Amino acid sequence: MSDSAAPKIDVARENGKFLSASLESIAVDIKLPYSLYLSIDQKLVKFRNVGDTLTPERQKALSDRKVDTVYIERQEWQTYIGGLEASLDQQGIARGNEKAAMGLRNALGAYLQLVLAGDEVTKASFSKAEDLSAKLPIAIGQSRELAHKLLRRSTDPAMYFSNHAVNVAIYASAVGLKMRMTGQELQDLVLAATFANIGVIKIPRQILYKPGPLTQDEWKIIRQHPQYGKEILGALLVKPKIQEVVLQHHERFDGGGYPAGLMGQKIQLFARITTIAECYSAMTSNRPWKAASSPHEAVSMMQSTQGKFDNSLFSLLIEK
Ligand SMILES: [Fe+2]
């Protein structure tokens, strides 16, 4: 599909006072401690007040109408996240229980929404996201089917980066698990994968969400995000090894990437995995500037790039 098919984003909303939540993350049959808004004709309309209830029937009716995103005022976001955290089922996550794993996925996605909506990452929200991401390999290590169920491709462009970050972490974990990495290695890999694109918070929103093609100058600015990401993680005292993965996640196996043009094994293993996970996730998602390819198309396109990716790792991602 062409760029013209890409969804438009309301940049004002992105910079404004609302954050996007997946409809299925909203607790049903309780008095809601926050208000909910729906996007109708590009306008946000309140449809539940504090103290109202969302019934499972209403949630399903919205879902049947292809509504997958609701909006919560930024000042009520901590209340929303608090609810997700309070209902986390640690034992269920360890057993690979689907509902528990979905709760983990939603909580991680909610922290990433918060992080990506700002222009700096606080230590508190980073630590929360770090703790939650570390549990992802535990949950998805139980079954491949569960990993697939946790992938999210929202129709809302504002949710692209947070969904993408979690999807990249899921794909990277799947490769790490197949390589039989240790628990610590998996934690490091998944943290690097989750935060690979954190540097985008330093990119002007008008460029980041520009529908349609970017100019050469705009691409130059976008290509600074690995360096910004390394700096952000450095300020948060994240291990240098993880900072390097973030810096290297746009390097390509054939030396054609950026920022350093590193080649082959000179690129860290975790960065080579993150690259593959990121490309595959991006190509199969609706991006603000480009509509999604099918998984089959994405695999064909990545296989046809001849040497851009570490093929032995790519095989691990796509093999049954
Ligand atoms: Fe990136």
List the helices and strands and how they pair.
Layout: H1 11-15, E1 18-22, E2 36-40, E3 43-48, H2 56-64, E4 69-73, H3 77-86, H4 90-95, H5 98-117, H6 123-140, H7 144-150, H8 160-178, H9 183-194, H10 205-208, H11 216-222, H12 225-235, H13 240-248, H14 269-283, H15 295-303, H16 311-318
Antiparallel strand pairs: 1-4, 2-3
Helix pairs in contact: 3-5, 5-6, 5-8, 6-8, 6-9, 8-9, 8-14, 9-13, 12-13, 13-14
The structure holds fe (ii) ion (FE2).
Entry summary:
The chain is built from 16 helices and four strands. By secondary structure, the protein is mostly helical.
Overview of the structural elements:
The chain is mainly alpha-helical and 320 residues long. The protein has 16 helices and 4 strands. The N terminus is likely disordered. The structure holds fe (ii) ion (FE2). Fe (ii) ion binds next to loops.
Question: How many helical elements?
Answer: 16
Strand order of the largest sheet: 1-4
Largest sheet: 2 strands, antiparallel
* DSSP, total strands: 4
Query: What overall geometry do the principal axes of the alpha carbons give?
Result: globular
Derived structural class? mainly alpha
The ligands bound in this entry are:
fe (ii) ion
Estimate the mean pLDDT confidence: 88
- Provide the helix percentage: 40-55%
The poorly predicted ranges are 1-9
Task: Bin the strand percentage.
Answer: 5-15%
Radius of gyration: 19 Å
Order of helices and strands: HEEEHEHHHHHHHHHHHHHH
User: Distance between the terminal alpha carbons, to the nearest Å?
Assistant: 27 Å
